[in-house]
């Protein structure tokens, strides 16, 4: 075997190893989802969705947690979407290369890496205590909004960056002002990308547990929130609570709730990917 | 008129951007103020040298080391899983895989990072630990090994995606120059592409470490809740994050020492991740300049 | 002093500033005085003087990176948003320095239209593309807009090809049609100057010929400045040609002179293809 | 919602409102069961129950944040003072008995019983970092590290256990897995051959297949906690009463009064249902009278 | 049949396949037979036949997008990794069809070197750049490598400028030096054919002139195929010129003929700058 053949062989071996590694994560994910499906799918019925929590596993449902999650999702969207997109637009379209923009940039990149539980501590001190919101849906949503703000900003910037400069040039050259150009050309053209980022960020918010525990979301709340100041629970906390119960019935419940939670996250991710592909095609 | 409108818009957009500064300021001051109060009661020397962490008991010790060791141990295990696998994936996807395969596999892999962490906790506790106990008889029900492994699986996409982006960003003409001289893909990958993308790869590793250190639910569920200064991966440990969760599950009254301990633990965690994030940002900035 | 707005309906050029006009050189449409441009620390234009006559076609030629586009985009202040852009010197349009503080840039750009290298229609309908400049100005009068769109498309020689499909996406047009659409879009706001940055370099020969014809027609009413890398094109369509090299204006003269009898050796080298 | 038709079984109107309960995780299952059943009677009354532990619960209770507090030990002097400071008057109601169960992993085949002294040796503060192996307790036991699990310090169970075993409430070693959530303890012990832990009997009742209950030698005999040994007091020193506390402001609202009455009426049945030992029935009657008087006096 | 490996030390061309050679056209170094290329559904090369003679310089010209690069890159199979790439027809190198299954692509590329439009040195030292191709082959002999590197740098006319700085990063060289380094790097593995895709389009006039001189020298020993958009360059340095348009070979002849007396109208239009 000469050196070229040897190199070719190594090349082939690495390729196989690469495929193995790539599939490793996915296979595990599949095994795991399969396992959860086996554990939980039988437990899912309409009653499981509409039942309140109960001491008996068979009678216990996810109604309050699901409603809590939906409340959190809506409030978080309302709070984080406008701020995040506005900040992204500012950074990409307005900010000049100066100290402030450098500071903003490094700051956002850092925020994106702050552990979620630290946001919980921030929320606990600022929203729950100083602003006296208590362990309310609003306090939870505010906390999660701050958590996903950097993600939305970064995604907005990426989407805006992908809009060809030529479109902007054309608009300016016709006498459009900066904001007219942004509003009429840049935002419509980057809408898909922004949407993708926002949905991904929200799907992250739906799955967050730790910051809400710190903020004080409750384990046993047998009613759905009816206003932003109500106490609440969310799906991940309900799951956490059930996981830590050793009776098999509750493990089954946890698995069933996980299926629902995964369904929500995967659907959100799917929608996001769909938008991304559609939007990328537009600019190719 | 128009000028004023433009100005108003610009300023309101700017204020949205400034919210992020306020958030950082909020985080730092909240952590610092409470931690300052904490350290007015507890000597900072003890905090870093005492080997016991029992702030909730009558015999109180405030040594962060057991929590730190728990955090680092689980993170180390996670990185040991995520690094080789993630790097191989990134090289495979960017240099070998057909584009269509890459396009389907990448979002699927990213799904790994999209799964809520509480679900991974479930996986670690209910599936992985019992599975590992078949091979490791002394393995406790709570341990850093399965928590670390599962966390590693979760952060694979962090390593693979960012590294892959970096590999992908290596100018095509460099690769072509190498192919053009008769190099195989493997040679091109390791001799040209990986070195050229090294800063991006390093960034991905740092971010993955930072993510592992800050991860909460997996360790809170599966690694245990006992602060213990050990490197033994088979026994229960407690991480900084798990401690915060543990305390938060009970009543934390503002002004109490319990309340302050979670902020003291929090600021330790924050400092670690802040350093890592800043480092990765610096490196990233540097290599972006190189290719732009 | 500000460039005052002219009513949109009756096309007029920007008001002349009487005093400054007297000092501007022999009725030049655009008078450039000792202009220098930096991008950060890099000096892209190294001090250029030039006068561009009304109702002529002036071609800018020179090797890649010599500053042709940078220079051209000074005339409608398109470089303003570029990071690190800095400029010195004066550029007078009808005698008014367009780099004065008070100049309304949006207004200026209506007066000085621009066509780019790659056709860049908005991802909207053909009609919306042409009407964009008018709508931006806040004009709502449907009938007026319709008339203007039709007129502009006719001037750009595109009307017959698209008149039945005005609602169609502009992206569905061919490259040549798109470029003519971009010209029509520019004409719709009735500028007096049209800047073109390599407008045919992405087009096939037939489309190129069509656009060259169009430029020839437009010259009657407009002052046209065109950047091109195709020297034959420059010699075919322009009245004046300017040769740039490394940020300097090497030679500027009647096109005929430049191509048959250039003064400078560098110009000759370039014209005859010794480099570039 | 008062226009709705009345329930045949009760004379009260359909009520609305929120009742906040917090405190002991030991009492939680009883209160949870009561709240759940109460839902059928009064669907518009929202009952939230936190599990901060007895101590944590009293902290909130003394700040007036909760209507009821679950407690697995009587209120302490310090907590009384805190209530007085905030002008909180309260009533203590006994709801059931509990035994503190000492538990090991089913695979543990060497332990048969503990003496109170042995438990003290394991759990006292001096044991921290010293008593680390099984064979330090009895030499014939294995030379393996012992893994300890117990309720967190905010819990009444912890207070009660340390009081009964170590001799001073709240005094113990700190190097064990301490959780307010008893489920965590169950799992910890169930997954670890060399584990030892303690918590409320009810959590054992739910997990008999995963845990082994160990008898405690009280000096005369080895006793395991059962319905009988707890209610007749032979399971010493680890049996105790459980309480709820209600404050005077809360009993001004009809839904709280209704809820507490419902609680006392159903405590016996529901307590047993979730693994606790009911009080003798005359005690419940007495509680009900006390409560009635308390409500009257706070009108 | 496989292209067998030649020992690296003594430069030889790929073994000829005797049988196939007889059918190949009058001693062509590269013989292209009815080649078609698709990218996905898009047909980029529409059936081309061509014979390239040994030790000549052949220039490919034509407007942007006509397929020059695609066609050139067929000769060392550089398109293989392009997604959606499909090809039909035969390309014979010294009589051997390089698109046969068994052909060792890495081997082929050592035989057919390539220089790209933008200088693309590896971010390594000058020495490492030139030695790369040898190290890739597993050659460890220090002395041999040193000799080869020196020889290649001399051939590429770069030795004098860098001999004292071989450890310096290649990125620190000027554009023109980088391009000559890339040529040296190619020469170090001793190919017999060198493909060049617009090798001077990113360079200044002086560097361009140097590289043109170099090409002239290299022609003695190598067969060179060069893509250029500069027609003057083509006329200056090449022996043969091929004019492509929309994926077709419109005309292929002696350079002189193409530039003075082309057969086809299209060729003439392009040469005289009617479009492009
Ligand atoms: N935004 C910018 N930032 C920094 N430098 C720039 C920028 N735009 C252009 N330059 C530099 O300024 C010089 C002139 O650029 P310009 O685009 O004007 O050249 P050009 O003659 O139009 O070239 P081409 O024929 O390639 O279009 C070049 O060296 C270019 O690299
Ligand atoms: N990877 C690819 N995928 C799809 N289409 C491609 C790809 N590469 C080239 N093409 C298309 O094939 C055609 C020929 O491209 P090629 O790069 O060969 O042209 P060229 O003559 O070298 O142009 P230029 O002078 O701009 O370099 C073009 O229409 C191009 O868009
Ligand atoms: Mg240009
Ligand atoms: Mg090309
Ligand atoms: O009952 P406790 O939760 O206070 O132990």
At a glance:
The complex is a heteropentamer, with 1 copy of chain A (284 residues), 1 copy of chain B (292 residues), 2 copies of chain C (276 residues) and 1 copy of chain D (299 residues). Chain A is mainly α.
Task: Give the overall silhouette of chain C.
Answer: globular
Bound molecules: adenosine-5'-triphosphate, magnesium ion, phosphate ion
Morphology of chain A? globular
Strand content of chain A: under 5%
In CATH terms, the superfamily of chain C is P-loop containing nucleotide triphosphate hydrolases
- Which structural category do the helix and sheet elements of chain C fall into? alpha/beta
Q: Write down the Rg of chain A.
A: 23 Å
Total number of helices of chain C: 11
Query: So, CATH architecture of the largest domain in chain A?
Result: Orthogonal Bundle
Task: Give the second-level CATH assignment, the architecture of chain C.
Answer: 3-Layer(aba) Sandwich
**Structural class by sheet pairing and helices of chain A:** mainly alpha
* Sheet with most strands: strand arrangement of chain C: 6-7-8-3-9-10
Classified by CATH, the class of the largest domain in chain A is: Mainly Alpha
**Main sheet of chain A, how many strands, which sense, barrel?**
none
In CATH terms, what is the fold-level topology of the largest domain in chain A?
MetI-like fold
Explain what you see.
Chain A is 77% helix and 0% strand. Chain A is built from eleven helices and no strands. Chain A is mainly alpha-helical. Chain C has a single domain, classed as Rossmann fold, CATH 3.40.50. Chain C starts with 17 loop residues before the first helix and ends in a 5-residue tail after the last helix. The longest helix of chain D has 20 residues. Chain D is an alpha/beta fold and 299 residues long. Chains A and B meet through α1, α3, α4, α5 and α6 of A and α1, α3, α4, α5 and α6 of B. The complex binds adenosine-5'-triphosphate (2 copies), magnesium ion (MG) (2 copies) and phosphate ion (PO4). Chain A: Its main location: membrane.
